[in-house]
Amino acid sequence: MSRRSPILGFSFMTATGLASLVIVSAVVLVIVDIVTEGMHTLTWQFLTDEPREGMTAGGVFPAIIGTFYRVILMSIVGVPVGTITAIYLTEYASQQSVFARMIRFAVNTLAGVPAIVFGLFGLGFFVQFVGQNMDQVLTGGADLRWGQPNLLWASLTMALLTLPVVIVAVEEAIRTVPRELREASLALGATKWQTIWKVVLPNSMTGVLTGGILAVSRGAGEVAPILFTGAAYFLPHLPGSLSDQFMELGYHVYIMATQSPDVEATRGIQYATTLVLLVFTFSLNLVAVLLRYRIRKRLRT
Amino acid sequence: MAMTEPQIRLRAENLNIHYGTKHAIKDVSLDIPSNQVTAFIGPSGCGKSTFLRALNRMNDLIETAQTTGKVLFDETNVYDPGVDVVELRKRIGMIFQKSNPFPKSIYENVAYGPRIQGEGDKRKLDEIVERSLQQAALWGEVKDDLDKSGLALSGGQQQRLCIARALAVEPEVILMDEPASALDPIATAKIEELIFELKERYTIAIVTHNMQQAARVSDRTAFFYLGELIEYDETKRMFTAPSKKQTEDYVTGRFG
Hints:
The complex is a heterodimer.
Chain A: H1 6-39, H2 44-48, E1 51-52, E2 57-58, H3 61-92, H4 98-112, H5 115-139, H6 151-175, H7 179-187, H8 192-200, H9 205-221, H10 224-227, H11 249-258, H12 267-300
Antiparallel strand pairs in A: 1-2
Helix pairs in contact in A: 1-12, 3-6, 3-9, 4-6, 5-6, 6-9, 7-8, 9-12, 11-12
Chain B: E1 8-19, E2 22-33, E3 37-41, H1 48-55, E4 65-73, E5 76-77, H2 85-91, E6 92-95, H3 106-116, H4 122-135, H5 139-142, H6 155-167, E7 173-177, H7 185-198, E8 203-207, H8 211-217, E9 220-225, E10 228-234, H9 235-240, H10 245-251
Parallel strand pairs in B: 3-8, 3-9, 6-7, 7-8
Antiparallel strand pairs in B: 1-2, 1-4, 4-5, 9-10
């Protein structure tokens, strides 16, 4: 067949089109299924009530709050640490230096580590090492407060998991800040630090937010890292301190589907919980996207 | 006051700059007199911008650039290890080829320098902003729009905003790297007029690839070619009776 054959061109176009169709239909199917099945159970009461009757009835309010706390805490820790690392990598480290390469290698490796390994790390490092030592120091080991899975350790584990995406996003944004702006600042007698703080960072805010968005999207859907570090099967009350365990939407779906005494009876709850998780993640994303849009607009005009 | 030899503000002595293996500036020695405009001309890649950027150590930002020799500013070699580069750049300001206002308001652009030096008094800042914009011949055009973004201005206005921003930190020397090369003739004329006014208070060194511009604005002209300083003299003489054949060829447009 000739290399300029129109048939070849047409089949290639069809193949690419079909491949794209697969992903679109997958997304549509998932969303339609979850929305139609979940709508029946999703009521205002479902959102504001706690699980009842052995979790075969009631709502998911504690799980919503737990997820919310976890995402916020994770971002409060992960975004600044990631941003600072990105600043070091782009502004201070010499690109060829062994240390900078080590950091980059670590970041790339971190990005490829399976989530469950983060969970085990969190359990081994935060809960058993840091936490138990804190208990030793604070109360002489009389109280088991920090040496058990809790909100803080789960959030820190999640922050670690999401660090690579934050670092990469912020790094990219920092690199797009025009050299002319840095030079302008330095030529006015600004120190390097002042230039970073007043020129580079404000002009990278969209990247910092993108990093935040990506971290939240990645983090909010992960369950494995919190399995051993803080998520609870069932709690009648909301977490009141960092050392409390918490319920979580993703984990809740998992246990409802696998650990529930009557899986059939909780099907509606599972669907509705999944729907809440989806909406929750989407709205967090939406907020961040809007925020990013506003900042970008402010920078332009 | 009798016309005596003008005071020397900046003096380069046997300056050599390498980018990796490239010898960009070859043993250049040159005096820049106070309150005059000194122009650096030469074909692209001749090293004139590199030389200019060596004067306030902007080449420090390029990792591969290596400088040897001296640049004397007030008897001090700016390349001495003890020299505070930040302080140096405060005293030797710079205007770039591509106007580079910050994505901030006009006011904040001009106030940037004084602010980072710790000036927090709003009234003082207002004064500095107004004075600097006036000196840069921009005040009349923007005085009612100080909150507007600096990026909303026209190209020529942006460049004058950058000049105002540089003036706000009260430098002694202003280095200009082809400040009008991206501007239309009218905007260029305004910048040139401004340069003429500014030399009363400041010492100015300007890189230009526009020979007419060098002839119009400068008192002295240095001709660079392939990293070497070929000739340096009063502008009048450089353009009418240069002593080197290469200079003559270049200023008459026979090459470059």
